[in-house]
Amino acid sequence: MTDTKQASAPASTTAAGNPPARRKGLTVIAAAAAIAAIAWGGWHWAHGRNFQTTDNAYAAGNVVQITPQLGGTVVSIGADDTDFVRPGQLLVQLDAADALVALAQAEAQLAQTVREVRALYANNVPLQAQVALREAELQRLEADAARSRQDVERRRPLLASGAVGKEEFDHAQTQFTSSRNAVSAAQAAVRAARAQLTAAQAQTEGSAQRDHPNVVRAAAKVRESYLALQRTRLLSPVEGHVAKRGVQLGQRIAAGAPVMTVVALNDLWVDANFKESQLAELRIGQSAELTADVYGDKVTYHGKVLGLGAGTGAAFALLPAQNATGNWIKVVQRVPVRIALDPADLATHPLRVGLSMEAKVDVSTQEGAPGAMLSSVPRSTPVASTTVYDTSLADADERIARIVAGEVLPALKALPAVAAAPAAAASAAAAPAPRL
């Protein structure tokens, strides 16, 4: 046994100390490293340099906060967390008793105002007749005064010859004076009647009864009360899923207090935070491939760069860094880049807001040079819009028109049922809810 160990020891020592064998091993390692470096360089030149990637990316979307426009007590809740809702769907119903009373008072005031305005217009007719009567009376008195004046003029030359007695002449002259005074009084009465007519016409002239300012003001009060009644219903302005319901039955909520959130999961995008050293080749319109941690590499989303942020994340932080004070350590900054997602990919594999993503942007296309890094055309369409509130005054206008026309309407006891989703969402309403 001892001889065997002694025989093998020199052999191993000889192998370890053999320079050709060692050089051969090092050569193999160096060749492998060189081949790997060349392969990596070739891959980077042909493929890798055409892409910018980051794993600092997250799904984002429109998070619509539902808040009441007036305070009230919650009497009904129409949706709960994780529920799917469509535009115009009732989410929360507030107690509408006070709003119904205010609406009844406003409609009663409108009816009273309509009657008062009709009386104003009706008063013009007797006032016009009064003016005509006064003018006719004035003409009669003027005729009497003219006749009395002629009697005086005829008797004046006969008084000197004695053909007419002085008593008769004095009587004719007294009658003429009386007629002249009556004419003056009649003229004053005509002016007074015309002034009354002018004052009445000033309140009605230039507008129809339905357009009279008093009627318009009372109708506006009805619309205001009807709006307050409508706003006791909190409707969903978008299609999405409910999150963070924070309201309970019987709770008294104030105007502007958040009650729940609706997230539009069918319209998401990705905010990818690229390092500042990666921005030089990023352009608006470049295509991108994205993966989500929730699905892994087996699902690939397709997207397009919509725009680059106007500042770094640190610049818009709640407490921005003050690099000009104290010790300073350079930190690589990141800029958010918005990437739109293909709706077909979202429909097949839904995402949630805030999920981690990995983004890879194809920078091989450099159209537009540096100018394509920033949008230069103002937006011509709204970012988002809803039509669920467009018909909120249609019923109020109908009731106002009927009241102005003279109908006696019973007080409204409750709002009509919530209408179906608008036509813009009809196609979406026919489709099943997105799979989550």
Outline the structure in words:
By secondary structure, the protein is α+β, with helices and mostly antiparallel strands. The chain has a domain of 111 residues. The protein contains eight helices and twelve strands. The strands form two sheets. A six-stranded antiparallel β-barrel has the order 1-8-11-10-9-12. A four-stranded antiparallel sheet has the order 5-4-2-7, with no helix packed on it. β9 and β10 form a beta hairpin. α3 packs antiparallel against α4, α3 runs antiparallel to α5 and α5 runs antiparallel to α7.
What structural keywords apply?
disordered C terminus, alpha+beta, disordered N terminus, 8 helices
Q: Concise description?
A:
The protein has 436 residues and is α+β, with helices and mostly antiparallel strands. The protein has 8 helices and 12 strands.
Number of strands: 12
N-to-C SSE string, H for helix and E for strand: HHEEEEHHHEEEEEEEHEHH
Task: Give the end-to-end Cα distance, rounded to a whole number of Å.
Answer: 74 Å
Question: How many H/I helices?
Answer: 8
Q: What strand line-up does the widest sheet have?
A: 1-8-11-10-9-12
How much of the residues is beta strand, in percent? 15-25%
What's the pLDDT, averaged over the residues? 80
Radius of gyration: 46 Å
Structural class: alpha+beta
Shape: elongated
Helix content: 40-55%
The largest β sheet comes out as: 6 strands, antiparallel, barrel
Low-pLDDT regions: 1-9, 11-15, 422-436
SSE order and pairing:
Layout: H1 2-16, H2 19-46, E1 51-66, E2 72-77, E3 84-85, E4 90-94, H3 97-161, H4 166-202, H5 213-230, E5 233-235, E6 240-243, E7 252-253, E8 260-275, E9 287-292, E10 296-308, E11 334-341, H6 343-348, E12 356-362, H7 394-404, H8 426-430
Antiparallel strand pairs: 1-8, 1-12, 2-4, 2-7, 3-6, 4-5, 6-8, 8-11, 9-10, 9-12, 10-11
Helix pairs in contact: 3-4, 3-5, 5-7
